[in-house]
Amino acid sequence: MSFTEIPDDAYDGDEPIPDFDEWDSPDSLFNEGPIRERLLDVVVGIRTPRKVSEIAEYADCDTETARDYLEWFNEMGMVHRHDGRPVRYARNDAYFEWRRIDRIREEYSDQEIATALTDTLEQLEAYREQFGADHPDDVSLVAVTQDLDMSTEAAWEALSEWKSLTKRAHLLDAARRDHPLSRKTVHSADV
Hints:
This protein has helices spanning 26-31, 35-45, 52-59, 63-76, 93-107, 110-131, 141-147, 152-178; strands at 50-51, 79-82, 88-91. It is mainly α. Strands 1-3-2 form a three-stranded antiparallel beta sheet. It is extended.
């Protein structure tokens, strides 16, 4: 029997056929939940200033509710308000970076942060040596595939990982520098 065939004993005919009209629609699975959470999901995803009406539409809520929550998000620092007609809002990347740094501080000890930073810096140095550049943005994908005899996919993956490690080093170093306990000691791992 192939995996697409239905076994004879899978449905004996005694059970009623489900009424698909009673099932939740797929759209409702994505649009239900607290409005605040839906708005936050939208805010996290926007990269450019958006009108309140657009954000409300994405979050499936009315404009006034969206406006109230966006003002609150603005007061919390999660979004930037762009005044004008119409008022627009954009995600505040600095807030989300601060949250990531704060989480690193909460979840890891000073020693774990320092160890992770050291490991990350070693990986970054290996990429610098491999590609002969200081930053992944300085590397031409076309040149790498020809000069280092790498497939496009392998080069893309390596450069993407290098970029991710650069961001990780920044976050770990910020967590190490800003950690209350680490202020008392001098570390040489500044990037």
